[in-house]
């Protein structure tokens, strides 16, 4: 197979690590951390970093970004720099060299008022600074070249950054007598490994351009997500203080923090039509993830 070169900006992140893992066997890879390319840098400094690391890349993937929703809300200028201005620099640098550029966006571009899965054609209406910065980042990505792709993702978890819901829920159940998790928020827990695998067949395909939704199949509330994680951990022999995860409302949890959309299930019909593939139900990778990555940390030897 002709080995092609993939440059991943944000290779230390949750998604970045999974992208590296799936690309490694068949492609030449360069992973850029924030020390190689900081999204806070000027246009010139970003271009110099790309000149150094990515000139011969066939595709540049941007999995780095400002992902803390509440910090973005408090500092819109920083959100703009990291999720829009720097993205414009990268997108333009790639366009000038006819290099395909793939950026990742978020379910937070939607207002969550629907109750059926969002398609790529649904209008965006972000409720937060973070969501708006992702919309603007999408526009500078697809606006720079017809070959560019924006992949919208949702409710990500994966190895490497144990701060996501599965790791948190199991730790809370082990350490606390009560655990309440938001029950009026609906989405699709999505495994970074599945997202990276799903992207692979489209990675070098310039006709796969514009906006694309990817997530694991099915949906649940955040409470159901946490309960499933706790059940899997119990099944592995983890001793917990809380077996039943109770409900909480979004208003209880987020109060005056950045507004989150209530319903953000993404339709993957477009992806399925393009590739003939379907993504697995959310429970399948989640069970495996808890068994392999979460439960072992809580098992008494
Ligand atoms: N997490 C989710 O639930 C979710 C949902 C929908 C969409 N997304 C989108 O998916 C993409 C990947 O998310 P993720 O969960 O993998 O994020 P993540 O784990 O938070 O990783 C973000 C990456 O961005 C890097 N980064 C942050 N500030 C930077 C800067 N100034 N310069 C260079 N790098 C910087 C971080 O570097 P360090 O490791 O050095 O901090 C990290 O590698 C993002 O575009 C995000 O908006 C995520």
Features:
Rossmann fold; six-stranded parallel β-sheet; two-stranded parallel ribbon; 12 strands; globular; binds NADP nicotinamide-adenine-dinucleotide phosphate
- Globular, elongated, flat, extended or rod-shaped: what is the shape? globular
Mean pLDDT: 95
State the CATH architecture.
3-Layer(aba) Sandwich
Q: Output the strand order for the largest sheet.
A: 2-1-3-4-5-10
Low-confidence stretches: none
Total strand segments: 12
Provide the β-strand percentage band: 5-15%
The CATH superfamily bears the name NAD(P)-binding Rossmann-like Domain
Largest sheet: 6 strands, parallel
**How is the CATH topology named?**
Rossmann fold
Bound molecules: NADP nicotinamide-adenine-dinucleotide phosphate
Number of helices: 11
* Helix and strand run: EHEHEHHEHEEHEEEHEEHEHHH
Q: Count the domains.
A: 1
The end-to-end distance, rounded to whole angstroms, is 45 Å
Structural class: alpha/beta
Query: What level of helicity do the residues show?
Result: 40-55%
According to CATH, what is the class?
A: Alpha Beta
In short:
The protein has 301 residues and is an alpha/beta fold. The protein is built from eleven helices and twelve strands.
Secondary structure blueprint with pairings:
Layout: E1 5-9, H1 14-23, E2 28-32, H2 43-53, E3 59-62, H3 69-74, H4 76-96, E4 100-106, H5 129-144, E5 149-153, E6 156-157, H6 165-175, E7 180-182, E8 186-187, E9 190-191, H7 192-199, E10 210-213, E11 220-221, H8 222-235, E12 246-248, H9 250-254, H10 269-275, H11 283-294
Parallel strand pairs: 1-2, 1-3, 3-4, 4-5, 5-10, 6-9, 7-12
Antiparallel strand pairs: 8-11
Bound molecules: NADP nicotinamide-adenine-dinucleotide phosphate.
């Amino acid at each position: 197979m002709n080995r092609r070169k993939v440059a991943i900006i944000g290779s230390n992140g949750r998604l970045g690590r999974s992208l590296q893992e799936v690309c490694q066997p068949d492609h030449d890879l360069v992973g850029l951390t924030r020390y190689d390319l900081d999204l806070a840098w000027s246009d010139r400094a970003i271009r110099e970093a790309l000149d150094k690391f990515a000139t011969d890349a066939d595709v540049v993937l941007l999995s780095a970004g400002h992902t803390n929703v509440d910090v973005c809300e408090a500092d819109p200028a920083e959100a703009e720099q990291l999720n829009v201005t720097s993205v414009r620099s990268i997108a333009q640098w790639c366009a000038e060299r006819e290099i395909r550029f793939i950026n990742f966006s978020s379910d937070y571009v939607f207002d969550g008022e629907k109750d059926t899965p969002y398609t790529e054609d649904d209008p965006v209406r972000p409720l937060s600074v973070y969501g708006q910065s992702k919309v603007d980042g999408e526009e500078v990505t697809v606006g720079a070249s017809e070959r560019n792709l924006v992949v919208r993702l949702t409710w990500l978890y994966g190895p490497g950054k144990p701060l996501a819901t599965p790791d948190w829920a199991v730790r809370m159940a082990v350490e606390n007598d009560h655990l309440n998790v938001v029950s009026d928020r609906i989405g699709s827990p999505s495994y970074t490994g599945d997202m990276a695998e799903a992207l692979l067949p489209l990675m070098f395909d310039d006709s796969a351009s514009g906006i694309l939704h990817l997530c694991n199949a099915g949906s649940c509330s955040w409470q159901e997500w946490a309960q499933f994680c706790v059940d899997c951990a119990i099944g592995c022999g983890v001793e917990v203080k809380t077996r039943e995860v109770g409900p909480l409302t979004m208003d209880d949890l987020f109060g005056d923090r950045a507004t989150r959309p209530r319903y953000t299930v993404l339709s993957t019909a477009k992806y399925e039509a393009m590739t003939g593939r379907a993504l697995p139900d959310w429970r399948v990778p989640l069970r495996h993830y808890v068994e392999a990555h979460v439960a072992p940390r809580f098992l008494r030897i």
